[in-house]
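Technical appendix A lists one of the benchmark inputs used to test multi-chain prediction within the project. The record comprises two sequence entries:
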Amino acid sequence: MDYKFANRVQNLNPSAIREILKFTADPEVISLSAGNPAPEAFPVKDIAEISARVLAQRPFDALQYGTTEGYGPLRRRITDYMQKKHNIVREFDNILITSGAQQVVELAAKALCNPNDVVICEAPSFIGSLNSFRSLGSRLVGVPIQDDGMDINALESALKSNPNTKIIYTIPNFQNPSGITMSLEKRHMLYELARLYDVVIVEDNPYGDLRFEGEHIKAVKAFDEDGHVVYGGSFSKVLSPGIRVGYAIAHKTLLQKMTVCKQGEDVHTTMWSQIICDEYMGGCDFEAHLNDLRDIYRKKAKLMLSLIEEHLVPHGITYAPTQGGLFVWCRLPDGVDMPSFCKRAIIDYKVAVVPGNAFLVDENQPCQNFRLNFSTPTDDAMRKGVAKLGELAKEVIK
Amino acid sequence: MDYKFANRVQNLNPSAIREILKFTADPEVISLSAGNPAPEAFPVKDIAEISARVLAQRPFDALQYGTTEGYGPLRRRITDYMQKKHNIVREFDNILITSGAQQVVELAAKALCNPNDVVICEAPSFIGSLNSFRSLGSRLVGVPIQDDGMDINALESALKSNPNTKIIYTIPNFQNPSGITMSLEKRHMLYELARLYDVVIVEDNPYGDLRFEGEHIKAVKAFDEDGHVVYGGSFSKVLSPGIRVGYAIAHKTLLQKMTVCKQGEDVHTTMWSQIICDEYMGGCDFEAHLNDLRDIYRKKAKLMLSLIEEHLVPHGITYAPTQGGLFVWCRLPDGVDMPSFCKRAIIDYKVAVVPGNAFLVDENQPCQNFRLNFSTPTDDAMRKGVAKLGELAKEVIK
């Protein structure tokens, strides 16, 4: 059968990252291309205990249908936590539990964007979200990212020249793929621009709790006094990604549409997962756990950055400031062919990294960057992997 | 903020069923309006044992990210099972694990339907799927359902007059809400029409294993020799709905697009849930469990039908043939106002039923039906509830 696909998915293909991940099935390949939390970061014992208790004492809470809005106790607990800790969740807001923060992005776009409406995103940005916007027929406009976040002048130009912009999409903390964090000043300017041009900001914050250096910067949502910001939170990096729990905090009018859309997608998020999150936040020391995570990632990031300094910087490779999250964004000197560098890394040196153009609105645009991950590989794998990249750099960068 | 919603969601509102469910929070109300599996149908002990074993022996399989396609062992196990038992999954097919069968419907529409493309559905049909199609901007065309399934002549007329039809959506077994099953002859004609008009059939089969009477009828997908059928299966009614696991079996070309769309929705389905399904099918006696379920529902359905015969039929209320599933579709005599009957049932008699128009393409069309559920209420609740409906019928039907 010759399928007549919807226009919006005609050119939608499996991401370049997935193609690279195929190579990483080879046990000889050192993968610096993943985005998985460190295995030692999972509170396995606590989760097993909670699960056993729930399935013994109140199995139907975990196994029966739930409401689309999410498990009541978890909704109340996150609301309380976010209000106290982050000054988020105003009177006009409500909360929806989602199947990962990816779904927050998708539901916001589904509720707001007609085909060909514009979504402004950081360039580079998270490929999963870009594909989510694409799958709904949105037109993506990229705004370059600087060391302190989105180029605000370029953002304003983009808003001016695209009056059909519905969403500005940002990952303000330790952005994927760049690791860059948006400054407080820029967050404020971003919010003011969203008000001025009457567009919605989707603030995707999966990495915010993983700051291992520098000062916490308040969320864009904390500025929100009129419902311009949809905040997306996630348990993937702080508890477990396999359980698929995230949440949206947004104005109740917008959230109601997102809830109806979610009902048509997966009815509700896995109940067991939601209860695990609720009981973990309530019965375990969540703040101590977050501190442990920061210790793990600080140590791993320090090692990665020292290896980059040792093996890559001498060959003219630079990297973006990294104070949290899972990634370092490296840049090859001008004149070095980035795609061929990444290809040779995997084929000749058996080290997988992600070519930066995968994260652009148009993958065919020129790009000198590649992404390194420090959360998934062992220390030993990082040492070997970056040393090998250094050998390749020595070979190709004159 | 005055949100500019996408056209496709402008008129999308929480379903009428949800409004009724609000009344059922009142403990005095007897609910015959739900669609939940019977609590006694959950294999709680087995699930708890599997969960404990997995979290003790291989926690990272349950807690780390997985692939969008789904957990490999579960994909292979379902493929094998469906090939052997149902002659489904051809050479050209592939399988995608989804977050419930609802997601199969949504992903198929996302991959195939441009805004205003037509989806032909049974009238009445499952409101969750109708909302899913609506949320993507599809135009719904309803085809009346008869005691042996879709009116095939009306289907052909609909196909003729809507050349932009992309999908025919059907629930062939014990349809929600009507409980009706499509005959083998009609399944064959449906498949031939889909080939003739080159449209895709989405065969949604959550209730197929819950046949407690009559002979099994083979799936529409079992006819499929060229990729015209997307089959949606579900663990919600046979294991647990709270775990949110379903699956799509479809031609690999179509399934690849659906997979990229799923990646943008929730990345992958909860790993714990997928492992529970795999280990349950592999380590427990799945066929014996299905037989137990059929015993539970046969008993409950028999009671419900005998109560309908006793309390409702004498007042001229009729019902559709019911050989499986969770629902009985009742019909008030002409001239009786159905919406007001349902409203009085809940307000004056404290019995919740679902008014049939909620399941129509246009809720404002006339409708004489209401849906009764026999899987969720206790036997005692059914007895009291239907007796009260009988009192109301006596009062209003002259």
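Chain A touches chain B through 83 residues (CB under 8 Å). Chain A is about 45% helix and 15% strand. Comparable benchmark entries are summarised in Table A2.
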